[in-house]
Amino acid sequence: MAATKKIGTHSGKFHCDEAFACYMLKQLPEFKDHQIVRSRDEKVLSECDIVVDVGGVFDHSTRRYDHHQKEFQETMSTLGLLPFNTRLSSAGLIYAHYGKQLIANYLNVPVDDKLVSLFYHRLYSVYVEQVDAVDNGISAYEGLPKYHTSGGISGRVGHLNPHWNEKDVDADERFGKAMNLVGEDFMEILRYLYQVWWPAREIVEKAIESRKETDSSGRVIVLPSNGGVPWKEHFFDLEDELNLSSSNITYIVFGEGNDWRVQAIPNSRLSSFDNRQPLPRTWRGLRDDCLSNESGIKGGVFVHLTGFIGGNRSKEGAIAMATKAIQLGSQK
């Protein structure tokens, strides 16, 4: 009978990064049947097929992924993988080398599929980088925090360690719980990206591509009638990726309930009321017939006092509001 292959990591107090690293490895067919061994004994670790967060060596060719050595300064950027400069932990190292395969397996697509690359970037940005940063003592802010936080996923994993006043605790069992905690959290983000985030991006991208079918200026985009599509983040990402900043896309039209909305595109993804061109000043604060009479467009519902958003009873009316607002020009 073949000897059981092993994933090695350190014993003692555990942290989010090695729990996460071990979880990711166990999701891959190559490592799914490996036993987790927690030790600092070099002889024990030398018998492991792969070692994370211990041993003082980073060498992908020999499957050694420690980051504690003084000379270690690797980031996703220095490895030539992604434009992030946060020093990697063992989680980041495993994600760097095996993350694409994990994502491809979940999506059931080849590892070179464009969706894998997109998710690989996104998952590092929204999830893995924080684990790397916390483990390396890199703060998310300058100066003193204004309020206390629980420490996020790294803090939650830390709380699973045996406590000072607990007796007869199986530390390896707790480590298994830590692996599942961070792993299930990560997989939930991956599921969200695939089932919610990506379909929304496709909708926004198609709306951008077909925008000149709505208005020849190309400055109005129209989403399908189903309201609630999260569009702002996708819009700014796609505008950058498609080099559309000079196109001056100004308004977005989308359905909401039984009505339609026309919203001014914000100046940045972090802006709400600060936008590229508010709806006309003479429309602001008006409702229903008053708005319709002033704008000359039937079906008016409202225009916000700041002009960042307005409504109409019909899709055609909302598009007409957007195109007329462009004709009237900026009235900030």
Concise overview:
The chain is α/β, with parallel strands linked by helices and 332 residues long. It has 9 helices and 10 strands.
Count the beta strands: 10
Approximate helicity band: 40-55%
For the record, give the distance between the C-alpha atoms at the N and C termini, rounded to a whole number.
77 Å
Largest sheet: 5 strands, mixed
Beta fraction = 5-15%
What overall geometry do the principal axes of the alpha carbons give? elongated
What class, by secondary structure content? alpha/beta
- Mean pLDDT, to the nearest integer, reads 94
Radius of gyration: 26 Å
Number of helical regions: 9
Order of helices and strands: EHEHEEEHHHHEHEEHEEH
Low-confidence regions: none
Q: What topology, given as strand order, has the largest sheet?
A: 2-1-3-5-4
Can you walk me through this structure?
It is a single chain. It contains nine helices and ten strands. It is an alpha/beta fold and 332 residues long. It has a five-stranded mixed β-sheet. A hairpin with a 4-residue loop joins strand 4 and strand 5 (64-65). Helix 1 crosses helix 6 (171-209) and helix 5 (152-158) packs antiparallel against helix 6 (171-209).
Would you spell out the secondary-structure blueprint of this structure?
Blueprint: E1 6-9, H1 16-26, E2 35-38, H2 42-46, E3 50-52, E4 58-59, E5 64-65, H3 90-107, H4 114-135, H5 152-158, H6 171-209, E6 220-222, H7 232-241, E7 251-256, E8 259-264, H8 288-295, E9 300-303, E10 309-312, H9 315-328
Parallel strand pairs: 1-2, 1-3, 3-5, 6-7
Antiparallel strand pairs: 4-5, 7-8, 8-10, 9-10
